[in-house]
Protein backbone atom coordinates (compact mmCIF):
# COMPACT_ATOMS: atom_id res chain seq x y z
CA UNK A 1 0.00 0.00 0.00
CA UNK A 2 1.45 3.35 -1.03
CA UNK A 3 1.53 6.16 1.54
CA UNK A 4 -0.04 9.32 0.15
CA UNK A 5 -2.07 12.29 1.31
CA UNK A 6 -5.20 10.74 -0.19
CA UNK A 7 -5.26 7.74 2.14
CA UNK A 8 -7.42 9.64 4.62
CA UNK A 9 -10.42 8.54 2.53
CA UNK A 10 -10.08 5.09 4.14
CA UNK A 11 -11.57 6.68 7.27
CA UNK A 12 -14.95 6.69 5.49
CA UNK A 13 -14.99 2.90 5.29
CA UNK A 14 -17.20 1.13 7.80
CA UNK A 15 -17.35 -2.55 8.64
CA UNK A 16 -20.82 -4.05 8.61
CA UNK A 17 -21.16 -5.78 11.98
CA UNK A 18 -23.82 -8.47 12.26
CA UNK A 19 -25.65 -9.22 15.48
CA UNK A 20 -24.15 -12.05 17.57
CA UNK A 21 -26.10 -15.20 18.43
CA UNK A 22 -28.26 -14.98 15.31
CA UNK A 23 -28.81 -17.02 12.20
CA UNK A 24 -27.25 -15.25 9.25
CA UNK A 25 -29.06 -15.41 5.90
CA UNK A 26 -27.16 -14.48 2.75
CA UNK A 27 -29.55 -13.68 -0.09
CA UNK A 28 -28.48 -14.08 -3.72
CA UNK A 29 -31.02 -12.99 -6.32
CA UNK A 30 -31.15 -12.92 -10.10
CA UNK A 31 -31.24 -9.53 -11.85
CA UNK A 32 -33.49 -9.18 -14.89
CA UNK A 33 -34.25 -12.90 -15.00
CA UNK A 34 -37.59 -12.42 -16.77
CA UNK A 35 -35.72 -11.20 -19.84
CA UNK A 36 -32.92 -13.70 -19.25
CA UNK A 37 -35.27 -16.70 -19.09
CA UNK A 38 -37.03 -15.55 -22.27
CA UNK A 39 -33.72 -15.12 -24.08
CA UNK A 40 -32.71 -18.70 -23.28
CA UNK A 41 -36.24 -20.09 -23.74
CA UNK A 42 -36.79 -21.45 -20.24
CA UNK A 43 -39.70 -23.89 -20.18
CA UNK A 44 -42.85 -22.77 -18.37
CA UNK A 45 -43.83 -22.88 -15.59
CA UNK A 46 -40.62 -24.51 -14.33
CA UNK A 47 -37.57 -25.55 -16.31
CA UNK A 48 -35.85 -28.54 -14.69
CA UNK A 49 -32.57 -27.62 -16.40
CA UNK A 50 -32.60 -24.14 -14.86
CA UNK A 51 -33.55 -25.49 -11.43
CA UNK A 52 -30.78 -28.09 -11.53
CA UNK A 53 -28.29 -25.44 -12.62
CA UNK A 54 -29.20 -23.30 -9.60
CA UNK A 55 -28.88 -26.33 -7.33
CA UNK A 56 -25.45 -27.22 -8.70
CA UNK A 57 -24.25 -23.64 -8.15
CA UNK A 58 -25.65 -23.60 -4.60
CA UNK A 59 -23.94 -26.89 -3.80
CA UNK A 60 -20.64 -25.54 -5.12
CA UNK A 61 -20.92 -22.44 -2.92
CA UNK A 62 -21.62 -24.58 0.13
CA UNK A 63 -18.62 -26.77 -0.64
CA UNK A 64 -16.35 -23.74 -0.92
CA UNK A 65 -17.78 -22.00 2.18
CA UNK A 66 -18.07 -24.79 4.72
CA UNK A 67 -19.71 -22.63 7.43
CA UNK A 68 -22.93 -22.58 5.38
CA UNK A 69 -25.36 -25.23 6.59
CA UNK A 70 -28.40 -24.87 4.31
CA UNK A 71 -29.32 -23.31 0.98
CA UNK A 72 -32.89 -22.61 -0.14
CA UNK A 73 -33.83 -21.67 -3.68
CA UNK A 74 -36.93 -19.71 -4.65
CA UNK A 75 -37.77 -17.67 -7.75
CA UNK A 76 -35.25 -15.04 -8.90
CA UNK A 77 -35.74 -12.00 -6.68
CA UNK A 78 -33.77 -8.78 -6.91
CA UNK A 79 -30.88 -8.29 -4.52
CA UNK A 80 -28.83 -5.52 -2.94
CA UNK A 81 -26.45 -3.15 -4.69
CA UNK A 82 -23.14 -4.76 -3.69
CA UNK A 83 -24.15 -8.33 -4.48
CA UNK A 84 -25.65 -7.28 -7.81
CA UNK A 85 -22.49 -5.47 -8.89
CA UNK A 86 -20.19 -8.27 -7.75
CA UNK A 87 -22.24 -11.06 -9.29
CA UNK A 88 -22.62 -9.19 -12.58
CA UNK A 89 -18.90 -8.51 -12.73
CA UNK A 90 -18.12 -12.13 -11.95
CA UNK A 91 -20.51 -13.38 -14.64
CA UNK A 92 -18.97 -11.16 -17.32
CA UNK A 93 -15.45 -11.99 -16.15
CA UNK A 94 -16.06 -15.70 -16.50
CA UNK A 95 -17.84 -15.25 -19.84
CA UNK A 96 -15.01 -13.20 -21.32
CA UNK A 97 -12.18 -15.37 -19.96
CA UNK A 98 -11.78 -17.54 -23.13
CA UNK A 99 -11.35 -14.41 -25.25
CA UNK A 100 -8.18 -13.47 -23.38
CA UNK A 101 -6.93 -16.89 -22.22
CA UNK A 102 -8.07 -19.24 -25.02
CA UNK A 103 -5.48 -21.90 -24.21
CA UNK A 104 -6.18 -21.86 -20.44
CA UNK A 105 -9.77 -22.90 -19.74
CA UNK A 106 -11.07 -22.29 -16.24
CA UNK A 107 -10.87 -25.32 -13.95
CA UNK A 108 -13.38 -26.33 -11.30
CA UNK A 109 -10.91 -26.01 -8.43
CA UNK A 110 -9.64 -22.57 -9.52
CA UNK A 111 -12.62 -20.46 -10.46
CA UNK A 112 -12.48 -16.63 -10.13
CA UNK A 113 -14.44 -15.13 -7.23
CA UNK A 114 -14.79 -11.54 -6.05
CA UNK A 115 -15.95 -9.82 -2.89
CA UNK A 116 -17.56 -6.41 -2.61
CA UNK A 117 -18.22 -3.55 -0.26
CA UNK A 118 -20.07 -0.24 -0.30
CA UNK A 119 -18.42 2.88 1.08
CA UNK A 120 -20.21 6.24 1.24
CA UNK A 121 -18.32 9.45 0.51
CA UNK A 122 -20.23 12.63 1.48
CA UNK A 123 -18.64 15.14 -0.93
CA UNK A 124 -17.28 15.44 -4.46
CA UNK A 125 -13.83 16.23 -3.06
CA UNK A 126 -13.89 13.05 -1.00
CA UNK A 127 -14.79 11.10 -4.12
CA UNK A 128 -12.05 12.70 -6.17
CA UNK A 129 -9.53 12.09 -3.40
CA UNK A 130 -10.57 8.45 -3.33
CA UNK A 131 -9.98 8.16 -7.07
CA UNK A 132 -6.66 9.98 -6.68
CA UNK A 133 -5.65 7.62 -3.88
CA UNK A 134 -6.35 4.60 -6.08
CA UNK A 135 -4.35 6.03 -9.00
CA UNK A 136 -1.39 7.04 -6.83
CA UNK A 137 -1.39 3.56 -5.34
CA UNK A 138 -1.66 2.00 -8.79
CA UNK A 139 1.19 4.09 -10.18
CA UNK A 140 3.58 3.37 -7.30
CA UNK A 141 2.79 -0.34 -7.28
CA UNK A 142 3.15 -0.51 -11.06
CA UNK A 143 6.49 1.27 -10.88
CA UNK A 144 7.74 -1.12 -8.19
CA UNK A 145 6.52 -4.25 -9.97
CA UNK A 146 7.95 -3.13 -13.33
CA UNK A 147 11.33 -2.50 -11.72
CA UNK A 148 11.28 -5.72 -9.71
CA UNK A 149 10.51 -7.96 -12.67
CA UNK A 150 12.91 -6.08 -14.94
CA UNK A 151 15.66 -6.86 -12.44
CA UNK A 152 14.64 -10.52 -12.22
CA UNK A 153 13.83 -11.24 -15.88
CA UNK A 154 16.19 -8.84 -17.68
CA UNK A 155 18.95 -8.38 -15.12
CA UNK A 156 19.22 -11.95 -13.87
CA UNK A 157 18.85 -10.88 -10.23
CA UNK A 158 17.23 -13.20 -7.69
CA UNK A 159 13.91 -12.25 -6.11
CA UNK A 160 15.54 -11.73 -2.72
CA UNK A 161 18.33 -9.56 -4.13
CA UNK A 162 15.85 -7.48 -6.12
CA UNK A 163 13.75 -6.82 -3.01
CA UNK A 164 16.87 -5.84 -1.06
CA UNK A 165 18.05 -3.36 -3.71
CA UNK A 166 14.61 -1.80 -4.04
CA UNK A 167 14.59 -1.05 -0.31
CA UNK A 168 17.38 1.45 -0.95
CA UNK A 169 14.96 3.71 -2.83
CA UNK A 170 16.81 3.52 -6.15
CA UNK A 171 13.75 2.30 -8.02
CA UNK A 172 13.63 4.83 -10.95
CA UNK A 173 17.39 4.63 -11.62
CA UNK A 174 17.43 0.82 -11.56
CA UNK A 175 14.43 0.65 -13.88
CA UNK A 176 15.98 3.09 -16.35
CA UNK A 177 19.24 1.12 -16.45
CA UNK A 178 17.52 -2.21 -17.03
CA UNK A 179 14.77 -0.99 -19.34
CA UNK A 180 15.29 2.25 -21.33
CA UNK A 181 12.10 4.06 -20.41
CA UNK A 182 11.43 7.04 -18.21
CA UNK A 183 9.07 5.65 -15.56
CA UNK A 184 7.92 9.11 -14.53
CA UNK A 185 7.02 10.17 -18.05
CA UNK A 186 5.92 6.87 -19.52
CA UNK A 187 3.96 5.43 -16.64
CA UNK A 188 2.53 8.52 -14.97
CA UNK A 189 -1.22 8.60 -14.84
CA UNK A 190 -1.70 5.13 -16.30
CA UNK A 191 -4.39 3.01 -14.75
CA UNK A 192 -5.68 -0.36 -15.98
CA UNK A 193 -8.97 0.74 -17.47
CA UNK A 194 -10.79 3.86 -16.33
CA UNK A 195 -14.35 3.50 -17.62
CA UNK A 196 -16.36 6.53 -18.56
CA UNK A 197 -19.61 7.10 -20.43
CA UNK A 198 -19.69 9.45 -23.41
CA UNK A 199 -22.87 10.54 -25.16
CA UNK A 200 -23.82 13.18 -27.71
CA UNK A 201 -26.75 14.63 -25.74
CA UNK A 202 -26.60 17.41 -23.16
CA UNK A 203 -29.23 18.85 -20.79
CA UNK A 204 -29.12 21.86 -18.52
CA UNK A 205 -32.33 21.57 -16.49
CA UNK A 206 -31.84 21.14 -12.77
CA UNK A 207 -35.29 19.78 -12.05
CA UNK A 208 -36.68 17.20 -14.45
CA UNK A 209 -40.11 15.70 -14.91
CA UNK A 210 -40.67 11.95 -14.81
CA UNK A 211 -40.66 11.86 -18.63
CA UNK A 212 -37.43 13.85 -18.78
CA UNK A 213 -35.77 11.61 -16.20
CA UNK A 214 -36.73 8.53 -18.21
CA UNK A 215 -35.37 10.17 -21.36
CA UNK A 216 -32.09 10.84 -19.58
CA UNK A 217 -31.89 7.26 -18.35
CA UNK A 218 -32.36 6.04 -21.93
CA UNK A 219 -29.56 8.33 -23.10
CA UNK A 220 -27.28 7.03 -20.38
CA UNK A 221 -28.04 3.43 -21.29
CA UNK A 222 -27.13 4.17 -24.92
CA UNK A 223 -23.92 5.98 -24.01
CA UNK A 224 -20.63 4.50 -25.13
CA UNK A 225 -18.27 3.22 -22.44
CA UNK A 226 -14.67 4.15 -23.16
CA UNK A 227 -11.49 2.77 -21.61
CA UNK A 228 -9.01 5.59 -21.04
CA UNK A 229 -5.51 5.53 -19.54
CA UNK A 230 -5.31 9.10 -18.28
CA UNK A 231 -4.42 11.23 -15.27
CA UNK A 232 -7.53 11.47 -13.09
CA UNK A 233 -5.81 13.40 -10.29
CA UNK A 234 -5.55 16.74 -12.11
CA UNK A 235 -8.58 18.96 -12.66
CA UNK A 236 -8.40 18.63 -16.46
CA UNK A 237 -9.94 15.16 -16.52
CA UNK A 238 -12.98 16.26 -14.51
CA UNK A 239 -13.35 19.63 -16.25
CA UNK A 240 -13.50 17.94 -19.66
CA UNK A 241 -16.08 15.44 -18.39
CA UNK A 242 -18.50 17.39 -16.17
CA UNK A 243 -21.25 14.81 -16.69
CA UNK A 244 -19.41 12.27 -14.51
CA UNK A 245 -20.10 14.22 -11.33
CA UNK A 246 -23.31 15.91 -12.50
CA UNK A 247 -24.87 12.64 -13.71
CA UNK A 248 -25.97 14.39 -16.90
CA UNK A 249 -25.19 13.04 -20.38
CA UNK A 250 -22.49 14.96 -22.21
CA UNK A 251 -19.63 14.78 -24.69
CA UNK A 252 -15.93 15.54 -24.68
CA UNK A 253 -15.14 19.13 -25.74
CA UNK A 254 -13.36 19.54 -29.05
CA UNK A 255 -9.66 20.30 -28.67
Automatic annotation (TrEMBL):
EC number: 2.7.7.79
A Pfam family recorded for this sequence: Thg1
Molecular-function GO terms, alphabetical: GTP binding; magnesium ion binding; tRNA guanylyltransferase activity
Listed Acidic residues bias regions: 196-206
Catalyzed chemical reaction(s): a 5'-end ribonucleotide-tRNA(His) + GTP + ATP + H2O = a 5'-end phospho-guanosine-ribonucleotide-tRNA(His) + AMP + 2 diphosphate + H(+)
Family, per entry: Belongs to the tRNA(His) guanylyltransferase family.
Identification of the protein by name: tRNA(His) guanylyltransferase
Protein task: Adds a GMP to the 5'-end of tRNA(His) after transcription and RNase P cleavage.
PANTHER family per record: TRNA(HIS) GUANYLYLTRANSFERASE-RELATED (PTHR12729)
Superkingdom to which the source organism belongs: Eukaryota
Cross-referenced InterPro entries: Thg1_C_dom (IPR025845), tRNAHis_GuaTrfase_cat (IPR024956), tRNAHis_GuaTrfase_Thg1 (IPR007537), tRNAHis_GuaTrfase_Thg1_sf (IPR038469)
Residues annotated as domain Thg1 C-terminal: 125-234
Keywords linked to the UniProt accession: GTP-binding, Magnesium, Metal-binding, Nucleotide-binding, Nucleotidyltransferase, Transferase, tRNA processing
Amino acid sequence: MANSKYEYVKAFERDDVLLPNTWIVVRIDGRGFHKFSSQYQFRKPNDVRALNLMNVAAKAVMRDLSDLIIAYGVSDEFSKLVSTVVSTFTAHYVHAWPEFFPSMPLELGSLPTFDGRAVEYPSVQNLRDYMSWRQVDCHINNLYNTTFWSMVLLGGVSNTAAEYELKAGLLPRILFELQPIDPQGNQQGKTPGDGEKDDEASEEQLELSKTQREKRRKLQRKADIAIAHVDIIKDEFWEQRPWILSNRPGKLPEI
